[in-house]
Design a protein that fits this description.
heterodimer, A: about 350 residues, two-stranded antiparallel sheet, about 75% helix, globular, B: Rossmann fold, six-stranded mixed sheet, 12 strands, about 25% strand, binds adenosine-5'-triphosphate, binds magnesium ion, ABC_transporter-like_CS (chain B), ATP binding (chain B), AAA+_ATPase (chain B)
């Protein structure tokens, strides 16, 4: 048997794992490389992209995706999907608006109602999933269709229209607008408040994931739920909590939608759920759970924001945007896989 | 000797499969209770009940004399019962130290942040006590060998088991040196006053450390004996099922082990 000193010596030798390998084995590396490449590409080909004033626009685009990509990434690390995340944003915006408008209440009542509803939808998704044991792909696909129909149907009943009625003349609108839709100007750059929310959510989520017990549980329930339960991790609570976090962020996004544009289109949000998932996957989340990064998901959202506007600024036909996105997804996934293998081989 | 944990007439059915019937057993302080039996005899089912993974469907489990039914493994752990499962191991993509402390994370400071430095230090120390060196505790456990993973799980149970440690075939994947270490740990835990349930197929291992032996067969207890009233040969014979062994040796007597298969001629 080896002596303790021998063991320690061997420990020391291998503990000096090359910094490069350690950095490269981070899940977000692939997305960082992709973000730099795309940034340089548009810097080269799109003149308006070089204009500092457009930073605000690009970040705004990224923030509206990022605010949802962050909780969706957490959920994916926890081993589940939420296909209803896109339409849940619309539901949140609509429910707040319609309640306040229909009953002539202060809009803050609508804001609170919407918060409760959005988090409850998340909790319902989680509960149904655990109750039935069905895959989350199916459960949330169901919720996705249900909410899509409810959005259209309830809006039609309440307003006779496909969009919610304007609420900018109602009590509390000004303060709610300040909280959910304001912007600040720093030099030539106009920053929407969503950018602040996005950065905050990213920081909080990254902290929770890597530095708290709950973060440990999230990785564990996504990696092997059975093993996690066996060592005492509250698997159900963790999963339901993750769905509720998605609900909370859907509420925040929905409130921005409402107070930024005053009305919400009831058909909006369909297809967004995949964009959130794409951002998370570009950021290094595995579809199988147990691995990923919220910082990566935010970089994924940034890539999305840059591409969306870069294509415009470069004068390319925006029809190609989705194609570009699809190629990006495949490339990022391949890069992630390659980088991970290289880093693991050392 | 006081029984920490005792089972009386416990039964468990999975649908129409009666995996356990009328099992009584007690785990005493400072004793190793070995559970032996064939594949499918119900050993893992038994320990899953005691660890809170499955509820039992009949009988009574009592802790310190009062009946309990653990709702979840977390409850069992809170009662000081730590388990190494045969089939439920570790989260593959998580690092070694995160797995080691999973469910029992150390936290410090106002924000209840993970105390990563202490966890890594303790994890490294506990693993090197088991005689395995894992160069980098940040590596995912998926990159460890099966035996190393098993050692992580065992080291974890030994570290966190406050009153009862349950080991379900812990030595099945281990080398001679590590098996020896595990057995030594079992003895150490026993001498420290813990109750140990040790499940194995190997009567030699069992007899080395066991105080009490329970053999399960088709979900029933067929032997429950103290070490004093049992020899190793008798234990091995009981495990193989007495007359079945005689039958087997009779059958095999006809086979000449020397020339079972002719060596293949190179072509
Ligand atoms: N989740 C389950 N659902 C249905 N039947 C099960 C389940 N788990 C175990 N069984 C059945 O219960 C019986 C006992 O299984 P158990 O795993 O307890 O055996 P074991 O003694 O641990 O065997 P081994 O030595 O192979 O580990 C087997 O017949 C098995 O098929
Ligand atoms: Mg078993």
């Amino acid at each position: 048997m080896s002596t303790v000193e021998e063991l320690a010596a061997r420990d020391d030798r291998v503990a000096g794992r090359p910094l490069a390998a350690r950095v490269l084995s981070r899940p977000e590396v692939g997305s960082l490389v992709a973000a730099v490449v795309i940034f340089l590409l548009f810097m080269a080909v799109a003149e308006p992209f070089r204009n500092v004033a457009n930073v605000g626009t690009i970040l705004y685009g990224a923030s509206t995706i990022g605010m949802m990509a962050v909780p969706v990434a957490l959920l994916m690390i926890g081993g589940e999907f939420d296909l209803s995340a896109g339409v849940a944003v619309t539901t949140a915006g609509l429910s707040g608006s319609l309640l306040a408008w229909n009953f002539g209440l202060n809009v803050w009542v609508g804001v609170l109602f919407s918060l409760v509803l959005a988090v409850a939808i998340g909790a319902f998704n989680g509960w149904l999933l655990l109750r039935t044991g069905l895959p989350s792909f199916l459960v949330t696909l169901g919720t996705f269709f249900v909410l899509q129909g409810v959005n259209l149907g309830v809006t039609r009943i309440a307003t006779g229209n496909v969009a919610s009625a304007g609420i900018n003349d109602m009590d509390g609108f000004a303060s709610a607008h300040a909280v959910f839709g304001s912007e600040v100007t720093i030099g030539p750059i106009n920053l929407k408040i969503t950018v602040l929310y996005w950065v905050l959510l990213t920081l909080i989520a990254a902290y929770v994931l890597l530095r708290t017990r709950i973060g440990n549980w999230i990785f564990a329930v996504g990696g092997d739920a059975g093993a996690a339960r066996a060592v005492g991790v509250p698997v159900r609570a963790t999963k339901v909590g993750l769905f509720m976090a998605v609900g909370f962020c859907a509420w925040l996004s929905g409130m921005h939608l409402l107070f930024q544009f005053n009305t919400v289109q009831s058909g909006e949000g369909v297809g967004k759920e995949f964009i959130f998932i794409i951002a998370a996957v570009i950021g290094g989340c595995l579809l199988t759970g147990g691995y990923g990064s919220v910082v990566g998901a935010s970089i994924g959202a940034l890539i999305f924001g840059m591409t969306q506007l870069g294509i415009n600024y470069a004068g390319w036909n925006p029809d190609w945007f989705r194609t570009f996105l699809g190629v990006m997804l495949l490339l990022a996934t391949i890069v992630n896989l390659y980088v991970k293998r290289r880093a693991d081989l050392r | 000797m006081t029984a920490i944990l005792s089972l009386s007439n416990v039964g468990k059915s999975y649908g129409n499969v009666h995996a356990l019937r009328d099992v009584s057993l007690s785990v005493r302080q400072g004793e190793v209770t070995c559970v032996l039996g064939d594949n499918g005899a119900g050993k893992s089912t038994l320990i899953k009940i005691v660890s809170g993974l499955h509820p039992h469907s009949a009988g009574e489990v009592s802790l310190d004399g009062s009946p309990v039914s653990f709702g979840s493994p977390r409850d069992a752990q809170a009662a000081g019962i730590a388990t190494v499962y045969q089939d439920l191991a570790l989260a593959p993509l998580m690092s070694v130290w995160r797995n080691f402390f999973l469910g029992n994370e150390l936290r410090s400071g106002l924000l209840r942040m993970l105390d990563i430095a202490s966890m890594k230090r303790i994890c490294a120390a506990e693993l090197s006590k088991m005689g395995i060196v894992i160069p980098d505790l940040e590596r995912p456990v998926a990159s460890l060998s099966g035996g190393q993973r098993q050692c992580v799980a065992i080291a974890r149970a030994i570290y966190f088991g406050a009153r009862v440690i349950i080991l379900d075939e812990p030595t099945a994947a281990l080398g001679v040196k590590q098996s020896g270490l595990v057995l030594r740990y079992v003895v150490k835990a026993r001498d420290a006053g813990l109750g140990v349930i040790f499940i194995t197929h190997n009567p030699h291992h069992a007899y080395l450390v066991g105080n009490h032996f329970v053999i399960l067969k088709l979900g029933r207890v067929v032997l429950d004996a103290h070490r004093d009233s049992l020899t190793l040969d008798r234990l091995a014979a009981e495990m193989a099922g007495g007359e079945e062994l005689a039958e087997l040796s009779h059958e095999l007597r006809g086979v000449d082990a020397g020339k079972v298969v002719p060596p293949a001629s190179p072509s």
